[in-house]
Design goal:
27% of the residues lie in helices and 23% in strands. The chain is α+β, with helices and mostly antiparallel strands. The chain has an 8-stranded antiparallel β-sheet with strand order 1-4-5-6-8-7-3-2. Strands 10-9-12-14-13-11-15 form a 7-stranded mixed β-sheet. Strand 5 (118-120) and strand 6 (126-131) form a beta hairpin. Helix 1 packs antiparallel against helix 3 (92-100). The longest helix has 20 residues, at 133-152. The protein is globular. The chain binds adenosine-5'-triphosphate and calcium ion (2 copies). One calcium ion is lined by residues 112, 114, 257, 342, 345. It is an enzyme of class 2 (transferase). Its EC number is 2.7.1.68. Residues 11-387 form the PIPK domain.
Length: 391
């Protein structure tokens, strides 16, 4: 499959921004690591570097000379993110190399509607998302709870955050660009043939791309889904328990609008190179097939949502707006990757207004802007219908 995004070369409109970002990260990550422990003092969470670090092109006492424009740099809660990286087993040198190595980043063609930009590191490991001021506020607010949550549940499905930063461009318009660095959920050696962004709502939840433009990099939505996912029993139990914990956490933090991102790699395919939708070999057996994938090397790296062998059962909808179609009894072996993304939208006043407005026109539970409790309920109801155990 072809790689996602456009490499940011010299002349690209965000070339300098990319250089700034790389310089800034190298500056913050490169500083000597303090404590080795995973315990943090409460003050770590409000420690915002009040001072901006200035990066003049000619260099300064603390910053190297560079080829970009002059800019300023700020890290949010650097100690917390350093500890998170440690918790998530991110090696500092590898992290720097992925983001600030000689390879350029790639810019994705705005995958979301919110106006954020997305960048992928050349090795596909990290995804960088520009953020609105309100999203930074939400992340800062929930950081202590987020830290506790991801520390308590090593199988958590919520997006992994590794850093939160801001670049301020010098000059008359002091434009600020805020961004978060997270793990790319779909980073894998094996090909991802389809990806779905699932919320459990039906309104507008269908791709607007014509069939001919849909490929393996297209993010499909709830109404495009024509399978249910069947996980092995013990994995399914772990999945349910973790989705419940993660949703409780998000609900408590008054978060909504998040999705379960699912990447599917079809096994036993009759694919020709580069084909978007390979024909997988369907079987009609209702019982677990034994030929899933017994390669121990693969199994060793299976974690909840990472590299998980499963089966999909094909479904058909009886009408266009039906969220989950009827099972057909036809199966295909797959490997799944999934996690919960876009968790920085809180239930603010604008959403309340949007909801009030939309309720005049649509069934109010079918749209995505509902309150966090309803959101989480609808999300779980849906997720537990499209994921089931394989028996
Ligand atoms: P909107 O608010 O309109 O939904 P957004 O700009 O907030 O959009 P996201 O929902 O965060 O964007 O992400 C858009 C798409 O980018 C997702 O559907 C997914 O395909 C991809 N994406 C986002 N985060 C990740 C991640 N951590 N790993 C892999 N892919 C991701
Ligand atoms: Ca989203
Ligand atoms: Ca969003």
């Amino acid at each position: 499959t072809k790689r996602q995004g456009v490499t940011i070369c010299k002349g690209h409109k965000n070339y300098e921004l990319m250089l700034n970002l790389q310089l800034g990260i190298r500056h913050s990550v490169g500083r000597p690591a303090p404590t080795k422990s995973l315990k943090l003092k409460p003050t770590a969470f409000d420690a915002e570097q009040k001072l901006w670090t200035k990066f003049p092109p000619e260099g300064s006492k603390h910053t190297p000379p560079h080829q970009s424009c002059e800019f300023k740099w700020k890290d949010y809660c650097p100690l917390v993110f350093r500890t998170l990286r440690k918790l998530f087993n991110v090696d500092t040198a590898d992290y720097m190399l992925s983001i600030c190595g000689n390879d350029a980043l790639r810019e994705l063609s705005s995958p979301g509607k919110s106006g954020s930009f997305f960048y992928l590191t050349n090795d596909d490991k990290y995804m960088i998302k520009t953020m609105k001021k309100s999203e930074v506020k939400v992340l800062k607010r929930m950081l202590p709870a987020y830290f506790e949550h991801v520390k308590s549940f090593e199988n958590t499905l919520v997006a992994k955050f590794f850093g939160l930063h801001c670049v301020k461009l010098s000059g008359p318009i002091q434009k600020k660009v805020r961004f978060v660095i997270m793990g790319n959920l779909l980073c894998t050696e094996i090909p991802i043939h389809k990806r779905f962004d699932l919320k459990g709502s039906s309104h507008g939840r269908i791709t607007d791309k014509p069939e001919s433009e849909i490929d393996a990099n297209t993010t499909l939505k709830d109404l495009d889904l024509k399978f249910i996912f069947r996980l092995q029993k013990d994995w399914f139990q772990e999945f349910c328990s973790q989705v419940n914990k993660d949703c409780d956490f998000l609900e408590q933090e008054r978060i909504m609008d998040y999705s379960l991102l699912v990447g599917i790699s079809f096994q036993d395919t009759e694919a020709t190179e580069g084909e978007a939708e390979p024909d997988c070999i369907r079987t009609t057996s209702g019982v677990s097939s034994t030929d899933v994938d017994l390669n121990p090397a693969r199994w060793a790296s299976v974690r909840l949502g990472i590299n998980m062998p499963a089966r999909v059962e094909f479904t058909v909808r009886s009408h266009e707006t039906q969220l989950v179609g009827e099972p057909t009894g036809e199966f295909c072996n797959v490997v799944l990757f999934f996690g919960i993304i876009d968790i920085l939208q809180d239930y603010d006043i604008s959403k309340k207004l949007e909801h009030a407005y939309k309720s005049f026109q649509y069934d109010s539970t079918s749209i995505s802007a509902v309150d966090p409790r309803l959101y989480s309920k609808r999300f779980r109801d849906f997720i537990f219908r499209v994921f089931t155990d394989d028996s």
